[in-house]
Description:
Blueprint: E1 9-13, H1 32-41, E2 46-47, H2 57-66, E3 70-71, E4 75-78, H3 86-101, E5 111-116, H4 137-156, E6 160-163, H5 174-183, E7 189-194, H6 195-200, H7 205-212, E8 216-221, E9 223-224, H8 226-229, H9 239-245, E10 248-249, H10 260-269, E11 274-278, H11 290-303
Parallel strand pairs: 1-2, 1-11, 2-3, 4-5, 5-6, 6-7, 7-8, 8-11
Antiparallel strand pairs: 9-10
Helix pairs in contact: 3-4, 5-7, 7-10
Amino acid sequence: MTQIRLTDTHIGITPTGWTNDDFPLLGDDITFEQCVSEIALAGFEGCSIGHKFPTDVNALNEALGLRGLSVTEPWVSTFFTVPGMRGRTIAAFEERMDFLDAIKGPVRTRSIGVAEFGNSIHLMPISLSASKPVFTEDHWQALAEGLDEVGRLARERDFQLVYHPHMGTGVQTQAEVDTLMRRTDPQYVHLLLDTGHLYWSGGDPVAVIEAHADRIRHVHLKNIRKAVRDRPGLASASFEEFVRAGIFTVPGDRSGGVPFPAVLAALEARQFKGWLVVEAEQDPHGPRPPLHYAKLAREYLRGLGL
């Protein structure tokens, strides 16, 4: 197996395999304590913040500290394309930075993940393929200006804004990622490479690395089950229906189609530094429990030298 030699990287995982932030009924019975204990048991260094995590920073620090975990990245949904939401979006971002400033852990967290959910349809029970939003010139201008502003605020406080392309939003495809990178200031707006969302939307994660390596500061290693993506009965499915059908899985799952050795080799060639974060939004009560997939992913990445 190809051996990847990346220095100054850390391996994390999101809690979305245990409890889903978009669809909270998925994994509603799984506790925060079970989730973070199994993340540590599987051998990860950190995790992102989920909706079941303590909102009291002292409680969060204590729980993660007991397990030797760091926070990989917090999340802020932006709404710059919605009239009247710029100020509220900036305020939410500043509050997140305040919270992040108080988080302790073996690895200091610098990245703040964002995605523009103005005009998004990914939480709606409608066809993902037929209803995808397409941004107007006004939308692109509002988004680029807003991201540059919060990215500047982040940099002033030694954080970095990393933008996450997402299915069902106006920045979903590889071409839309190219547009966002072209229209935003590289000093302030960086890219969160999500292999799963890009691959699902028809993009090539390796090509995105080649085009935007200098902007990529954070990576989500998410896999896509090709058989689910291409299932005729899901042609008009919503994002939730795809998630429940098992569209997402982890690196190392042979049912997935994302070419992780090539992705990681491309990151190695461009000397990527930062968090590599496994992510798979799945029904935790599916064929295998979350811990199975977490261990599968960690063992697969170890086999690649990570």
